[in-house]
C-alpha cells in the first residue's frame, strides 16, 4: 500500500476514534518511545532495565517526578535531555504541541484535532482553542526562559557555565511543568535556605499550576469582575490552599528535629515551611526529608496531593475547582438550596455530576491502587497511600519507597500516574457508550444516610 493509502486509513481511524481514547494512545505512544530512547546506551552512564526506563518515561510524560533511578547520575546529558523533552511534552500537552507544529507549517487544524485538543486541555468547547494554544506557547516560553536566567545566578557560580546553565534550564522546565524532577538525589535540599530557589521555583510551579485559562484571563482582562468564574475560583482556592498548607507545615513540623526543628534560625524554618507547603499540591521538589515528617503532616500532604492544581494546567489531582464545587454542593445541601451560586453565577447540574464522577473515580483509583500496593508491600500503609496519592496527583513526592517497589508495585504506580495525567474521566469515556433515553420513568425515593 502506498503512502496516500496509509494516510487515508490513518485519517479514517482517527476520525472514528473517541478523542479521549486517541489522547490516551498519544500519551502511551510517547511514553513507550521515551522509554525505548532512555534504554539506549547513549542515554545512560550504566545499563538500566526496561522497568527503570519505562517508569522514568511515564513519570516524565505525566510530569510526576517519581524516580526509581537517580536522574543526575544514571542518565547522561543526552538522557537528561530526553527526560526534559518528555516533561515539556507532558506539561505542554502532546496534542497542544502537535497543533503548534501544524500551525507553524501552515496546516489546517480540523475538527477532529480540535476535539482531541479540547480533551487534552480539559475544555468543554472547541471554539477559541487555537488562541489558547498561542497563549500557552507564549507563557511557557517566557516563564521558562526567565526562570532559567534567574536560576543561572545560583547554579552557574556553583557548577560552572556549561553544567550550571544546563542545571538552570532543566530545573526551569521541571518547575514550570510541575514535574519535580531534579538532577540531584536530595532534590533541592542543599539550597533549602537560598532565597532565589525559594522564590523562583515556587513562583514557576504556582503559575503553571493555575492553568493556562486563568493565565489567559489575567493577561487579557483587566479587573477582577471581568474574570471568568473558573478563574475566580482558581485564584481564591489556590491562595487559600497555599496559606493553609504553609501554616500547616510550620505548625506540625516546627519542633521536629529531622525537618524544621533541626534548622538554626526562625527564618530558615519559615523558608522550608513555605517551600514544602507550596510544592505539595503540584510539584515533587523537596527541601527537607519527606520520610522524616510526622504522620499528621503526611496525611495533610495526601489530601493536598489529591486536590492538585488547576484545569488546563501542568498539575494533576482532582483539581482545585472540583474540590471547591464539591464543598459548595455539600454546603448547599445542608442549607437546603436547589442550586449552587458563587460570585454571581450558578454552577450547572452537569458540572456537579462531573465533579461527582471525577471524585468517585479518583477514590476508586486511590483505594484500589493502595490495596494492590499493600498486597505486595504489607505493613507500609501510610507510605503506600502517600505513594499512590503522589502518583495520582502527578506530584512526585515520596516517603522513600519508590525505589523499593517490585515490578507489580511499579506497574501500579505507572498506571496511576498515566491516568492521573490523562484524566480519570478519560477511563469513563473509554468504557461508556452514549445511549439516548427514550423512556422517562416516574421519580422514586431513595433513603440516604
What report would you give on this structure?
This protein is mainly α. The protein has one domain. It has 19 helices and two strands. It has a two-stranded antiparallel sheet with strand order 1-2. The chain is globular and about 70 Å long. The protein starts with a helix and ends in an 18-residue tail after the last helix. Mean pLDDT is 83; it is low at 97-113.
Secondary structure layout plus pairing:
Blueprint: H1 3-16, H2 19-39, H3 50-61, H4 71-74, H5 77-92, H6 94-104, H7 111-120, H8 129-159, H9 161-176, H10 195-210, H11 212-220, H12 229-253, H13 266-279, H14 295-307, H15 320-334, E1 340-342, E2 345-347, H16 349-376, H17 381-392, H18 407-422, H19 424-431
Antiparallel strand pairs: 1-2
